[in-house]
Amino acid sequence: MRAAPLRWIMQKESNEIRSSIPDAWTLLRMTSIYEEKTQQNHIRQISNMKIEFSVEHIMKIIIEREVSEDKAYQITNES
After folding, report:
1. Distance between CA atoms of 48 and 45, rounded to whole angstroms?
2. Euclidean distance between CA atoms 3 and 64, whole angstroms
3. CA-CA distance, 70 to 79, in Å (whole number)?
4. Is residue 60 pLDDT above 80, yes or no?
5. pLDDT digit string (tens) for 14-50?
6. Which has the closest alpha carbon to 66: 77, 56, 78, 58?
7. C-alpha pair distances (Å), 77 with each of 8, 60, 63, 71, 73
8. Cα–Cα distance between 70 and 49 in angstroms, integer?
């Protein structure tokens, strides 16, 4: 069996390398998919922050009301 010429081996490797590098259209598509996923993640994070803030805010209001009701009850009973 005869050995493959060096030029043929180098050309084959060069073609394999070229075929593994994405073309401009693929890069653009990959970039837009990445940006879309990033944007969705940001929206999800902001939504979660709003929910957490809302729950925290509501809990604060409930606690403030309970404290003021307790104070009102104490004042009423002290009189």
Report:
1. 5
2. 87
3. 14
4. yes
5. 777 777 777 777 888 888 888 888 888 888 888 887 7
6. 58
7. 100, 26, 21, 10, 6
8. 31
